[in-house]
Amino acid sequence: MITKKLCTLCIFFFLVIGVKSFAQSKYQYPFQDPNLGIEKRIDNIISLMTPDEKISCLSTNPSVPRLGIKGTGQMEGLHGVALGGPGGWGRRKLVTTTLFPQSYGLGETWDTALIRKVAATEAYEARYIFQSEKYNTGDLVIRAPNADLGRDPRWGRTEECYGEDAFFNGCMVQAYVKGLQGNNSKYWMTASLMKHFLANSNENGRDSSSSDFDDRLFREYYSVPFHMGIEAGSRAFMASYNKYNGIPMMVNPVLKNVAIDEWKQNGIICTDGGALRLLWRAHKYYPDSAWAAAAAVKAGINQFLDRFTGSINLALKEGLLTEKDIDNVIRGNFRVMIKLGLLDPPSMVPYTSIKDGEEPWLMQKTKDFVREVTRKSVVLLKNDNHFLPLDKNKIRSVAIIGPYANKVLLDWYSGTPPYTVSALEGIKNKLGDKVKVEWTTGNDEDSVNDLASHADYVIMVVGNHPWCNAGWGKCPVASNGREAVDRKTIYLEQEDLIKKVYRLNPHTMVVLIANFPYAITWTDHNIPAILQITHCSEELGNALADVLFGDYNPGGKLVQTWPRSMDQLPPMMDYNIRDGRTYMYFKGKPLYPFGYGLSYTTFKFSDFKIKNPKIQAGVPVIVNVDVTNTGKMTGDEVVQLYVQHFNSAVIRPKEELKGFQRVTLQPGEKKTVQIELDPENLRYWDEGEHRWVLEKDKVKVMVGCSSDDIKFEQVID
C-alpha cells in the first residue's frame, strides 16, 4: 500500500517537473515567459544585464539588444500623433496623421466620452505606424495628456492644457489616458505619459523659477489632474523644469514620497528635454553634473531626455550613485514595456494586428469624426438678436476678412495632417457658386474698404498665431505666446481692424481662432455675434461653416475665466490662486465666466432633486435635474454642478465644479440629467494632520449652465 502511494507521488512529481521543464525549454530566459509574474520577469532581466546596459536603459528607449529586448521610445501626441509639424517631431520619418483641435479646444467640448474616443483614435494610429512594414517608425509611449492647469491666461502654453479647473482637467485627463491605453485588462494599446509634473504654468524663466504655494494647494489643486490620471491607469509622467517651493521638480521629494509611495506610480518618470544640465547651470542646485544625475536617479527619475551617460558614470565612479540605485528605477521602464506587450509573443498581444489595410487617417469615418469633435469644440460667445445662424439661401455676398481665414495653423506639438480645410475653404464649400465669397487678409486698406462696404455680411477671422511665426523664444506680437514665451498682453491687436470693418458694415461677426482668453471688451460690446474655436483641426473650416450656417448648433463651453482687463490678474509668478485666480477666487466681474457658452436654441431647467442629501463617506449624493429644449433647433447643453462650503475650518473657494454632463436635446425634448457628487470631492487637506478631512459642514449644491448662471441650489449637511 505504501509502495503504491510512493509510486503515485513519484509519477506526479516527475510529471510536474517535466511540464515545468518543457515550459522553460520554450524560452531562452525566464523573463520571456509571459505567464511569469511581472516583477519576477524584471528580476530576471536585471540579473542578466551588464552595468552599461542598465545605464543605457535610463534613456527614453529601454532596449537591451543582447537579450532580444526591443523597447519603445516616446512620441508627442497632445491632439494627434506628432510625426511632423512645426516642432520637427518627424525627424525619423515624416508620416501624416489625423489632427484634432488643440487640447484647449478638446476641453471646450466638455465631453469625456468624446475625448476618450479621440485618444483611442490616436493610439490606434500610433500602433499602426509603429507596426506597419510600410512605416515602422514612431513610438508607443505618448507624451499626453498635458495635466497642467491654466491658472493664468498669460501662460504661453495654455493651448496644451484643458483649462483652469483641477477637477475638470482631471476628468479630461482620465478620459485621454483611458483612450490611449485601451480597454484590455492585460495590455495597453499605447502608454500615456502625462506632462508636466508639477505647477508648470509660466514660460519666462521656467528653467530656474520656483512655483511656491502651500501643501493644501498642492493636494487640492495643482496635483489633482496628475493623481486622477494615475487613478485612471497612467504609469508615466514627465517632471517639469521649474522648482516647487525651492526644489527643482526632477529631484523634488514629492516624486517619491507622493507619486511613487502614495499614488503607486511605478512606471516611467522622465525629465523634460535638457533638464539635467539645468540643475547645475540654471537652478545652480548642485555643483556639477555627477551630483545632479545621482540626485535625479535617487529621486525616482528613470528616463533622461538629454545626454546623461557621462554624468551617470561619473556619479558611479565618485560613489554618489550605486548600481543598485539604477536597478531600482529602471524596473519602472520594464513594467511599461511589459504592459505594451513588447516582451511577449505577438500572438498574445491583441494590438499587434494593427498594421494592415488602409491608413486610418485617410478613412472617411476618421475625417467625419474629426469634424464632429471640432464642431463640438466651438463656443458661441455672443449672438444678439439671433444674428446667427446665417441663412445661406438669403445671402448674395460674403466678405471674409482676417489673417487666419485662408489657413489652418499648426502648433508646436502638432503632427502633419493629410489635408486641411481653412475657414475660407469651408465657407466656400458650404455656400457653393450661388453666393459671392471674397477674401482679404486685412493688410490692404483699399481691399478692406471695398469688400466690407459691398458685402451682405462680413465674417472677421482673427486670433493668435500658435507658434508666433518666429524663432525659438520669440513672439513679436504681444498677445501671442508659445513654449518658452509668456504673453505680454491679453488684448487683441486685431481689434482695431474689427472696429474699422464694423464702421463700414454693421452686419459683421467675429470668428476668434484662439487658444487663449482675450479681453475683447470692445468687440463684445459692439459686434452682434462672436464665435471662438481653437487651431489645428484638419476639419476646422468645414466644422466652422456647419456652425455659421446652422447645420450644427454650437454647445461648447469655456474652460477658463476670460478677464475684462489685465488689471484683474494677479502677478504672473503668484502661484497662490486664492489671491484672485480662476473662477474659484476671481475678483470682480469677468468678460466671460468659466463654463460659459451660448446656443442657437434655449433650455429650461426644472424638477431639481437631491437624493441622499446627507454628506456621508462612501455614500454619493445624487443630483437630478430635468433639462428641456424650449427652442426650435436641436442643441447641446452642459449641465454643471458646483458646490460652496459654509463654516469650513479652512478657506474654501466661492464655488467649485464637482460634476458635469453634456446632453443633446431635440426641440421640445426633455431629459433627466443625473450627476453623482462623491463625498471624497468635498474633503480638504489638513496640513497639520497631513490627511484628508471630510467635515461636518453645510454645503450648497448648485446646478446651472455656467459658473455664473446657476438655476437651482440647495444646502445639504
Give the integer mean of the pLDDT values: 95
Percent of residues in helices: 25-40%
Q: Work out the radius of gyration.
A: 27 Å
Structural class: alpha/beta
Range of strand content: 15-25%
What is the fold named in CATH at topology level of the largest domain? TIM Barrel
Describe this structure in words.
By secondary structure, this protein is α/β, with parallel strands linked by helices. The protein folds into 4 domains: 1-33; 35-348, Glycoside hydrolase, family 3, N-terminal domain (TIM Barrel), CATH 3.20.20.300; 367-585, Rossmann fold (3-Layer(aba) Sandwich), CATH 3.40.50.1700; 603-716, Immunoglobulin-like. Helices cover 29% and strands 18% of the residues. The protein has a 6-stranded mixed sheet with strand order 10-15-14-13-11-12, sandwiched between helices. The protein has a 4-stranded antiparallel sheet with strand order 19-18-23-24, with no helix packed on it. Strands 1-2-3 form a 3-stranded parallel sheet. Strand 21 and strand 22 form a beta hairpin. Helix 6 packs parallel to helix 8, helix 11 (289-299) packs across helix 12 (309-317) and helix 15 crosses helix 19. The longest helix has 24 residues, at 2-25. 51% of the residues are buried. Residues 1-23 have low confidence and may be disordered.
Summarize this entry quickly:
With 717 residues, the chain is an alpha/beta fold. It folds into four domains: 1-33; 35-348, TIM Barrel; 367-585, Rossmann fold (3-Layer(aba) Sandwich), CATH 3.40.50; 603-716, Immunoglobulin-like.
